[in-house]
Amino acid sequence: MVLVKLQADGASTVDRETTSAQDSAVLHRHLGASFLSLEKGQSSYLVLEDGRMIFDASGGAAVGCIGWGNRRVAEAVTRQILDVPYCPTIFYTTKAQEDLCQLLVDSTNGHMARAYIVNSGSEAMEAAIKLARQYYLELEQPQPQRVRFISRRQSYHGITLGALAVGGHVTRRAKFEPIMMKNVSQVSPCFEYRGKTNGEPDEAYVERLAKELDDEFQRVGPDTVCAFVAEPVVGAALGCVPSVPGYFKAVRTVCEKYGALLILDEVMCGMGRTGTLHAWEQEGIAPDIQTIGKGLGGGYQPVAGVLVGHRVINTFEKGTGVFVHGHTYQGHPAGCAAALEVQRIIQEEGLLKNVQELAPLLSKSLVDEVGSHPNVGNVRGRGFFWGIEFVANKETSEPFPAEDHVAMDICEFALAKNYGVGVYPGGGSVDGVRGDHIIISPPYNVSGDDIKWIVATVKRVVEDFFAAKS
Ligand code: PLP
């Protein structure tokens, strides 16, 4: 059966029915859709079956971080599959898994004690949620009443039921709410563009959000909460939204006040995407549990992970020592080998330095050249993780209606009209307000000229798209 098919004119067809019926945030495949067929990945380019080359300016969904077609990674995975293709982790481990976990723990400057390797960001979040719950049962004085989680509206934490329940992605949750766990409540995200009042100083905004969180702990009963869950830089749901300075210190303080854990979801914003290996390094705090994914294996294998801090590990060590969890394919040798090689390449080639050095060029040129467009409401991000939010009215920040599916259409326009650039769409609603954005998240090894080309091309796409739309 042919699942992926190239249209005669090379254009992709998207999930039009679903997007128009719901919201452009619903970007899932329609059974009747056909897709551009990829022939190969080559450096920063995706090469289509008809030979056209797309500069992958978003690394898919912020996955690709060393580009495509890397022989070192391919060879490491091949070697691993020939040596040990599968590892039943109930009895065994592999050098690849041990080395990867060590590399990850070492990367946290002593903050994290152990790493746990799974296959997807959603699995990592499920494990994080269960770890947090079990932690309270492992305490010398167990706290079985801790059954609740507090998270933030319009965050995305994964597609499986537990991850979906702590997530605040309205459209992805809607159909499944009746079968999701109910012991989750949500507070406002830290979203300067739409959440901060006019002229409100950062400190006042942080104080207001910390109070909202504190009030939520009080409302649900502080000793019933396992953890507060947040993305340090919100990815797919809001479009690369960092918090204002001091926010994470403030929410960390609230968690400590009530003895709750802090889970940071770095599946999208982590592993170097924001310029430091871990996004929390820029917040002056460390989480108790952290999830990682996309950039860990850079797209070469499905691999994700959970990093666990000393407080949780020490408690398990004094308790049963057994996390009641596991997957057939956890710690998969091919995933570990790929991730290990990708991370070594990032280290050896100084790619985080490249991100740090070129991030100001990316941010300034996006803000100056794309941000000035009348339909661009806001440009925000960090490192190589940038979001462009589109609005119908720049003055009032009024969003486009959902049925315009602007974010998806812009990405599709760029592909169909052969601009040669691939960017990633997203959107949704926060507290009843919609937003459409695209994400620019190039591989960490692009050059300054690549960045200039991406920005100039995205600018043309945005100008031509809205000119054609009006
Ligand atoms: N958490 C965040 C922040 C994500 O962006 C995603 C995926 O987009 C997930 C979790 C889920 O990861 P996966 O799609 O690998 O299951």
UniProtKB/TrEMBL annotation:
GO MF terms, alphabetically ordered: pyridoxal phosphate binding; transaminase activity
| Any coiled-coil regions, as ranges | none
Q: What is this protein called?
A: Aminotransferase-like protein
- Would I find Transferase among this entry's keywords? yes
Lineage: superkingdom: Eukaryota
**UniProt KW keywords:** Aminotransferase, Pyridoxal phosphate, Transferase
Organism of this sequence: Immersiella caudata
User: An example Gene Ontology cellular component term from the record?
Assistant: cytosol
